[in-house]
Amino acid sequence: MIDNRLPLRPRRLVAVGGICTTSIYAVDAVPAVPGKVIADRACQVVDGMAVSAACAFVRLGGRADIWGRVGDDPRGGAMRDELAAAGLDVSALRVIPGGVSSIAVAIIDSRGDRLVVPYHDASLDPCPNWLPLETLAATDFVHVDTRWPDGAAAALVAAGRRGIPGMLDADVAPREVLARLVPLASHAVFSDAGLFLHTGCDDLEEALYRVAASHSGHVGATCGAEGYVWLEAGRLRRVPAPAIEPIDTLSAGDVFHGALALALAEGRSLESAARFAVVAASLKCTRFGGRLGCPTRSEVEAAGG
Fold first, then answer.
1. Please, are residues 10 and 62 in contact by the beta-carbon 8 Å criterion?
2. What per-residue confidence (pLDDT) applies to 32?
């Protein structure tokens, strides 16, 4: 007997963005400079905003392809292998001859707050002409970040032409990049900091209405411990985050995006999808290791998602 409560097939996401090898260090506090501090814990993970969202999409029950670039250095091959081991389809991950793969350092303090320092080398050719856009016909959702603007724009435009939802992780980025990508996305999902930067307004509600005035799709913002806020039928809506003791907030927003995309692709209402995503992101914050702390679907549902 078929259980009609579940999707008949796993939903498919295509994620487009930057890819990093990130070293994560847990410290009691980030010292003033110059200074030195000993880490309590450490790990290394291949991530990136869209990459981590795609990993969350897979861990929560979907399928995901990653479209991005790595260098032809030894690190690039290891990055490809790790993403494949995480369940991502890496067949459209391009190796750039002579390119240097991206790296980052993330320092997590005792409150779970993080300092992230990424480095994206200019040797990674930004041209997106090689992207297999024709394969989007078999895709349920497209998700992009701001770290590869040309690739993100190409994917969002192609998705829009096919009537496929396209979500932008509108985090802090150059204002010209946000101005270019936000209008192309059917779902403009900001961080609160990215929203304030994009609009030049530090009032959350006013900033959302400013974006919505020229955007016909979904407009919302993640607000950390305050949950998710969005506009629906001209009204402000909110799903609060559950109370937790945060250990590591790195990749929490990315897990939110991946969970939200999956829940919407499965046909949930905005409120139900937002609740699922907020719970997933909150549970991630209770675990060290960036995207490695993403919960399973059963864990999210048991926690009320």
1. yes
2. 83
Kindly report each contact of residues 197-200 with a partner whose C-beta sits within 8 Å and lies 24 or more positions away, as own/partner: 197/172, 197/173, 198/170
Averaged over 290-300, what is the pLDDT? 97
CB atoms within 10 A of CB 11: 21
pLDDT at 4: 43
pTM above 0.90, yes or no: yes
Angle at the Cα of 262 (from 257 to 264), degrees rounded to 5? Answer: 95
User: What value does the mean pLDDT of the chain take?
Assistant: 95
Backbone φ and ψ of 240, nearest 5°: -75, 155
Q: Which amino acid is at 155?
A: A
| Cβ atoms 84, 66 nearer than 8 A | no
Q: Decide if 136 contacts 142 (C-beta within 8 A).
A: yes
Taking the C-alpha atoms of residue 96 and residue 99, their distance in angstroms, rounded to an integer, is 5
What pLDDT is stored for residue 30 in this prediction? 87
- What domains appear along the chain, each with residue ranges and CATH number? 12-302 (3.40.1190.20)
Pairing of strands 187-191, 166-170: parallel
**How far is the first Cα of the chain from the last one, in angstroms, to the nearest whole number?**
26
Residue 8 has pLDDT above 80, yes or no: no
Residues 14-33 pLDDT 10s: 999 999 999 999 999 988 88
